[in-house]
Amino acid sequence: MRRLNLIALIVFLVAVASLFALSAVRTQRIQAGFLDLISPFLRTGSTWHKQLSAVRDGLKTLDELELHNKELVVQLKELKATNQTLRDLEQENNKLRRALDYRERSVFKLVPARIIGRDASTWWNTVVVDRGSADGLQADMPVLTEEGLVGKTTTVADHSATVILISDENCKVAASIEGTREQGIVKGERTSSNVLPELGLSFLSKNANLQPGQKVYSSGVGGVYPSGVFIGVVKDFKIRPLDGYATLLPSVDLTTLQDVFIVIGNK
Description:
The longest helix has 82 residues. A 6-stranded antiparallel β-barrel has the order 1-2-5-4-3-12. Helix content is 38%, strand content 29%.
């Protein structure tokens, strides 16, 4: 064993001595050969490093894109909310403009009022407005909008009043039908709270033969409602044992009613 170690030591010393004995040119050749041997590994290591760097950069880019996408989603929601607000304001502005124009060209003296009370149990029957006797209101004054007839006042206090709607069966209006000499009485029909209200037009002649879409106006008979106020349109017509009967759709959307006019006289 010791002999083998001694031989190995002698071989190592001879190799070292040979390296020192080599000329500079041979030493460079040996170094170049060694570099050729390890250069593929160096290139492979460099490629792996570039790939890892690209993956890290890609992950960073994905994170930035995801964050930017979230910011865009928030901005889109804000823009939608702003757009809806502007649409609502535009609709309200157009509504007020139409109401003001109607008030200016109306032949009636009109007091504007806003609905401040509405009971779910009497949704199609009555509403409360923010005008009263202090504003010139009395009982049995017509209530309308630029679209048509709404009803009439009943109980009037100093600064508020109750309005009975035309969809209430106790609110009766004398009416005439465009293009005919027919006249009748309009009143509300009994209806459930989850169904849009309809009006009934009775005391028509059996041969009236009203057609869907015909317009119905107040006739002025009875002294409460002025003539020529739009009430609604015919939905259908049928013959009963004693008279002709038509179902009407109100001209005013009583579901979303907010602002009205009370007729306190003629201009």
